[in-house]
From TrEMBL:
The keyword Signal applies. InterPro entries: C-type_lectin-like, C-type_lectin-like/link_sf, C-type_lectin/snaclec_domain, CTDL_fold. Pfam families: Lectin_C (PF00059). This is C-type lectin domain-containing protein. It comes from Acrobeloides nanus. Residues 30-144, 181-303 form the C-type lectin domain. Residues 1-19 form the signal peptide. Keywords: Signal. It comes from the Eukaryota. Gene3D superfamilies: Mannose-Binding Protein A, subunit A.
Length: 317
């Protein structure tokens, strides 16, 4: 978990080099593509689904310059020489292709690769080389942002018939993110006060996300962060915790037990301001004397915060 936390922290510090790329992504030095690096550990299908939420795909690689750029950048982010990181390559029948629909003209397989057991491509940043890995192997991944979304998650045609499938496509609607630790589905929405956020979630049979352990806290952080420092205290997310029903008694809007807290220093503190609803800081706060990153703060329920995640149980196949 230290590894995941360190990657997330580094991602949060990652600044956008050129304005043309979406917030939180990085302009490639060798191409006009933008890349977003995810330190969360995710299987191939969930990684592709997450990339589609940023209007892209898992990244394709078409030349050695881009390959070297990705490896170099991943080394800087991960500070880890052994982990492999998912790219968008996968085995379709007997051929290898990319999730963005482009054909595989460049490859950089390690010696002995692709091995017969692997169905998707992961790069080892320390040597730039590619390895065939299992589709269900949970790994960090790289999205290529921009360009058309090619939704493999809604198609079964590309899934090798001998591969066990236990991913979001079995459990969540296609645009919701499956979290396998608790079998819930999540989707990020934007710009609402706490009450309107909860109302919107309920129209989907969901609630603003509750959080029950530090791993779920990391997960919520990861799916809602921009990677850009927070300059304004509304550039944060709502979580489902409030005391709007009983003053001074915090409860989750989904009715689950209040069994975990992750308060920032000095919070909760707004006992004199009436209703209290709780935010989480998914990014670092600029000039923060305390470190609020990933922590909670009780706040004014009427403020319009940047985002929130709705959460609902996965459907059983
Ligand atoms: Ca507070």
């Amino acid at each position: 978990m230290n590894y995941i936390a360190s990657v997330i922290i580094l991602l949060a510090n990652f600044k956008n080099a050129i304005g043309a790329c979406p917030i939180g992504s990085l302009q490639g030095t060798e191409s006009n593509s933008c890349y977003k690096f995810f330190g969360s550990i995710t299987n191939f299908y969930d990684a592709q689904a997450q990339c589609e939420k940023t209007y892209g795909n898992l990244t394709s690689v078409h030349d050695s310059f881009t390959n070297a750029f990705l490896a170099r950048t991943l080394m800087e982010i991960m500070q880890d020489t052994t982990s492999k990181v998912l790219l968008g390559g996968f085995k379709k029948g007997v051929n290898w292709t990319w999730t963005d629909g482009s054909s595989m003209v460049y490859t950089n397989w390690a010696k002995g690769e692709p091995n017969a057991n692997g169905n998707c491509i992961a790069i080892q940043p320390s040597n730039n080389q590619w390895y065939a890995v299992d589709l269900n192997l949970n790994s960090p991944y790289v999205c290529e942002v921009g360009g058309p979304v090619n939704s493999i998650t809604t198609s079964t045609a590309v899934i090798p018939s001998n591969t066990p499938i236990n991913t979001c496509i079995d459990h969540c609607e296609s645009d919701w993110i499956y979290y396998d630790r608790n079998s819930f589905c999540y989707k990020v929405f934007y710009n609402a006060n706490w009450t309107s956020a909860e109302e919107l979630c309920r129209t989907y049979g969901a609630h603003i996300s509750s959080i029950h352990d530090i791993d779920e806290n990391y997960f919520i952080t990861n799916i809602t962060q921009t990677g850009r420092n927070v300059d304004d205290y509304v550039d944060v997310i709502w979580i489902g915790l409030s005391d709007i029903n009983i003053n001074y008694t915090f409860r989750w809007s989904d009715g689950t037990p209040f069994d975990f807290t992750n308060w920032s220093p000095g919070n909760p503190d707004q006992t004199n301001y009436g209703n209290r609803c709780v935010i989480l800081y998914p990014d670092k706060v600029t000039s923060d004397t305390w470190d609020h990153y990933q922590l909670w703060d009780d706040w004014d329920c009427d403020k319009y915060m940047r985002a929130f995640a709705c959460k609902k149980p996965a459907r059983r196949p």
